[in-house]
Structures are given as C-alpha cells and as structure tokens.
Amino acid sequence: MKKIKIWAKKLKRQIFVLYLAYKDERVPWYTKLFTVCVVAYVFSPIDLIPDFIPIIGYLDDVIIVPLGIMFALKMIPNEVILECEVKAEEIMKNGKPKNWVVGSLIILIWSIITFWTIIKVYQLFN
To answer: What is the pLDDT of residues 62-98, one digit of tens each?
Structure first.
C-alpha cells in the first residue's frame, strides 16, 4: 500500500510539472498542445471510461493517464523539467492551482458533445 501512495504522489507531482512546463516558452507548440490535453484530462471530472464500470472504469486512471504523462515528459526539454520540478514541489506544499478557464472549456466541450448526442438520438427515433 505504501508503494501505491508513493506512486500516486509522484504522479501528482508530474502533473504539476506538466502544468508548469506548458507555460514555458522553451517548450515547442506541439508539446504544449499534447501537454495541455493530458493536464486537462487529469483535472477533468469526466473520464474517457466512467469509473462506475467495473474494472475497466479505472483503466484510464491506471494506464492512460500515466502513459500520457510519460509521453509528455519525454517531449519536454530536460532543463525545463528540472526547473518545473522545483516549482511543482512548492505548489504541492501550498495547494493545487485553479484554472477556471480550462475547467469551463472542458465543461463546454462535454456539454456540446452531450447536446449533439441527444439531437442525433432524437433524430434517429423520429
């Protein structure tokens, strides 16, 4: 159990590293795009596979998120990662940052998808 807690804390720190690296101008635009998608997905209350689905529901938390983090970290220059790791430790001590713009964007996207799905289902049955 202790290993899982250590792994989870390391994962959380890596998310903050990605969050900070996204803001760095030394990171290429395509890396920023991928990184913001990974961070937004992690902070999003909506999962690709809902958690209430037995076993499969937690696959995104255990497999997809760590893979996304790993790929994003490989794309970021090492000097940026080193600087962001120091800042991430400070953030973890002071509490999570809140980004209402990204949160609102995620809610808007899911609302559009839901609305579109409802319209398509309605059209299908009429």
So the answer is: 788 888 999 999 999 999 999 999 988 887 777 665 6
Contact yes or no for 21/33 (Cβ under 8 A): no
Total count of domains within the chain = 1
Domain that holds residue 87: 2-96
Residues 108-115, mean pLDDT to the nearest whole number: 89
User: What is the spatial distance between Cα 96 and Cα 102, in angstroms, rounded to a whole number?
Assistant: 14
In our burial notation (b when 16+ CB lie closer than 10 A, e otherwise), range 69-87 reads beebbeebeeebbebbeee
Residue 101 lies in a domain: no
- The pTM of the full predicted model, rounded to 2 decimals, is 0.64
Distance CA 92, CA 12 (A): 9
Return the closest-CA partner of residue 17 out of 101, 100, 97, 105.
97
| CA–CA distance, 80 with 20 (Å, rounded to integer) | 9
Please name the residues in contact with 32: beta carbons below 8 A apart, sequence gap of 6 or more: 22
Contact 78, 85 (CB under 8 A): no
φ, ψ dihedrals at 50, nearest 5°: -55, 140
